[in-house]
């Protein structure tokens, strides 16, 4: 009995000590912290987990819109966590991403929402430089030129499937079909083998499910980083047993696929007849080839199976929903706006007298299609809310005030892509013509959808190749009509990526006569 009493008393003391500590820390953060001068919610100033929990769990992905409201109220700087500011100023964004900028990715964010050490997750600038150098040959403009036939072949198969649906008078699920297209492209590039989503029933297979299931966990990871840190610190088998999240199954599959790829690549080929009889399972993967080549960059060390799988999952994630969601928003907005639809189809018909004439290289030179694609990127910004960077060691000055080293500065591509100083009063409208204005040359510099600087998107050229090839062929070959889709069906919330919560876009199509 005495033992129980002592234990209860001990626990009580710990509880009281924790409450006192919490209150003292809250007082410091509210009144004495170097960021205490900045406006924002008091909850944000006191506790990052509970502020994020409140807006992203309780209010389901709404923190970005709350921050938008706070910026309207308070101006370009808002405190969104004890040690984090959100800055909404296009010129400050230029400063943070200019050549030689010493801002680095915030490890407390990237180490919990990505696999650390990968192209996206690496926060150390010199290690990131090496990884980008290793991967550059897989995503360079020259490599994308070589990938054009592969992308076109997948577009042709996707559109052949559309035609079959149209012959049956079935509507087409653009959301799922574009995901299938983007995932088949990126899986072929990174693994040398496509996942076969384009021909899967309803464009759904296990791989699409794996990637999608990951989104729901994004905010949990950032709001409660200790839990994520704990799971990552465990041996992989224990972590998988305690936290059975689907991404771990995808990781196992990727480890096997990489092994199979390397075995097939390195298998001795003795004679011509052997080569002929051997079934080739994999195409070339420049990604794996360079990652396992110790000479692919100075100071690059070859990855083990688990690290390779981590990198592959990051590339699959980075290259799927981003591209597919921009394409979906582009199709929706282009059909919804009759004059955009008309100009686009007229330009394509004039440029490509028959659909056999359509090529990526010709399509990317079309001014109106280019304006529509850029506007879709601006308007949809698939990674809308978070790109947190840390103030360098020597500190930083923001509007004349000193900001200490290691303060986190976040910028939101959704907000910057709508900033009135750059995009004007119609920033919230879909208006491709803005890219054709005589004074539009500076706009590219301010578009933040791919981020900027040394950590800008590595897959930008590939994404453009996919978008131009798909959209030019779709709008040139088919008449498109919205099917039971309104703005409500296209609503999204912010789960670190734009997460569409409605029924999404469905269309009916009819083949055009050449
Ligand atoms: C329209 C499509 C795409 C958009 C809008 C987009 C957007 C972005 C953004 C905003 C970032 C910076 C993220 C951050 O700093 O937190 C990023 C990074 C990255 N993206 Fe993309 N992306 C797209 C397509 C792709 C594709 C197709 C790939 C191919 C694998 C890809 C690979 C990457 C990689 C590897 C990074 C990390 C670069 C680094 O941190 O150094 N992305 N992307």
Automatic annotation (TrEMBL):
InterPro entries: Cyt_P450, Cyt_P450_E_grp-I, Cyt_P450_sf, Cytochrome_P450_monoxygenase. SUPFAM superfamilies: Cytochrome P450. It comes from the Eukaryota. The chain crosses the membrane at residues 7-24. Keywords: Heme, Iron, Membrane, Metal-binding, Transmembrane, Transmembrane helix. Its cofactor is heme. GO terms for molecular function: heme binding; iron ion binding; monooxygenase activity; oxidoreductase activity, acting on paired donors, with incorporation or reduction of molecular oxygen. Heme binds at residue 457. It holds the Pfam family p450. CDD domains: CYP58-like. Belongs to the cytochrome P450 family. PANTHER family: CYTOCHROME P450 (PTHR24305), CYTOCHROME P450 12A4, MITOCHONDRIAL-RELATED (PTHR24305:SF166). This is Cytochrome P450. It comes from Massarina eburnea CBS 473.64. The lineage of its organism: Eukaryota, Fungi, Dikarya, Ascomycota, Pezizomycotina.
